[in-house]
Amino acid sequence: MITLGIETSCDETAAAVVSGASKIISSIISSSLSLHKRYGGVIPEIASRAHLESISFVVERALKRAKKTKEQIDLIAVTRSPGLPGSLLVGTSFAQALSFALAKPLIEVDHVQAHLYAAFLQKKKPRFPFVGFVISGGHTELFYVKDFLCSTLLGTTLDDAAGEAFDKVAKILRLGYPGGPAIDKISQQAKNKSVSFGCARMKDSFDFSFSGVKTSVLYFTQDARKMKSLTNKDIAYGFQNTVVDVLVEKALAACKHKKTRTLVIGGGVTANLLLRKKLAEEAHQNGIDVFFPEKSLCVDNAAMVAGLGSWLYQHKKGGK
Ligand code: KG4
Ligand code: ZN
After folding, report:
1. Shortest-distance ligand to the CA of residue 161
2. Pocket of ligand 1 (CB under 6 A)
3. What are phi and psi of 201, to 5 degrees?
4. Ligand 2 center to residue 115 CA distance, Å?
């Protein structure tokens, strides 16, 4: 089965062709990030206009690279939600029109679940059930996933998402947008690794709160600027370390709570090197198998949408 995936939930216009439920034949991502940079965040109106301008081209390109014609598509999968309403509307309208014109089935998928599906696009696939952890600019959500038709939310952020905290701290440190990659990069050059920040632990809960740590960084930075021995690199390192510790702690606690030895993570923040390193080390020590998507599949892409769409279509058809 050949599935065309379409993703337009935020600032990436993406299309991909996937064979079966996991073989990526092509994946095209066009980002409007450069248009948002000067504003320090994604501007919804600019994002939806950029989707409108590039969606036809991106879909054509994905098909061309996959050496498939529109008629060879068996299924169209599109991100339904969550995301920016105007941006989602461009993707879903385009997919609906294509589905109608070609008389091909259409399946709408959840963007957050699609981030978890990214790990299934790799050679070594996770087994159900697992604890799924989506860490992105809009989400910090822990799930217990029996399968993609049945998952339970274990915890979520009560304020900022982890990626949002990276972006806001990067703004404080004047590192530009998006902040995650910049913080990841400069923290590796930190000389003073003694800086640390308090972060709400939300004891006995799988919920998160990152707005406090962001405020701590703001106040600390105002003082630290007077202290000549500390640099932005040291502060970025301290912030990243604090957030990563909380993410790793909760992820492992959720696995323990659900008596699961499989942890699947996804979302833009999953690209963070320290997070990958710490999670891999601690999971190994606790006998947990952790599945990271490769870096190109951590950020928003349409291959994860096509893959999940194909999986759902096949399993729903199976009468589940
Ligand atoms: O999944 P994604 O592309 O879009 C959403 O669905 O939100 O995630 C984007 C988020 C941004 O907040 C960005 O700063 C963060 O992921 N991010 C990172 C890294 N790369 C991207 N955060 C920390 N370290 C990174 N290397
Ligand atoms: Zn995303």
Report:
1. 1
2. 10, 136-138, 163-164, 166-167, 178-181, 184, 267-269, 271-272, 299-300
3. -95, -15
4. 7
Q: What pLDDT band is residue 225 in, cutting at 50, 70 and 90?
A: low
pLDDT at residue 227, rounded to an integer:
65
> Phi/psi at 304 (nearest 5 deg)?
-65, -30
250-305 pLDDT, tens per residue? 999 999 999 999 999 999 999 999 999 999 999 999 999 999 999 889 999 999 99
Query: Best substitution site from 135, 156, 273, 299 to test ligand 1's pocket, by max atoms within 8 Å of Cβ?
Result: 299
- How many Å lie between the centroid of ligand 2 and the Cα of residue 43? 16
Strands of 23-31's sheet in order across: 23-31, 12-19, 2-7, 75-81, 106-110
How many C-beta atoms surround the C-beta of residue 284 within 10 A?
11
- pTM for the whole thing? 0.94
Give the model's confidence band at 319: pLDDT under 50 very low, under 70 low, under 90 confident, else very high. Answer: very low
Residue 189: closest CA among 210, 177, 175, 171:
175
pLDDT tens digits, one per residue of 20-49:
999 999 999 999 888 988 888 889 999 999
Closest CA to 1 of 320, 300, 309: 309
Q: Please name which ligand lies nearest the alpha carbon of 170.
A: 1
Which of the listed residues 112, 139, 166, 242 should we mutate to test ligand 1's pocket, taking the one with most ligand atoms within 8 A of CB?
166
Q: What are φ and ψ of residue 314, in 5° steps?
A: -65, -40
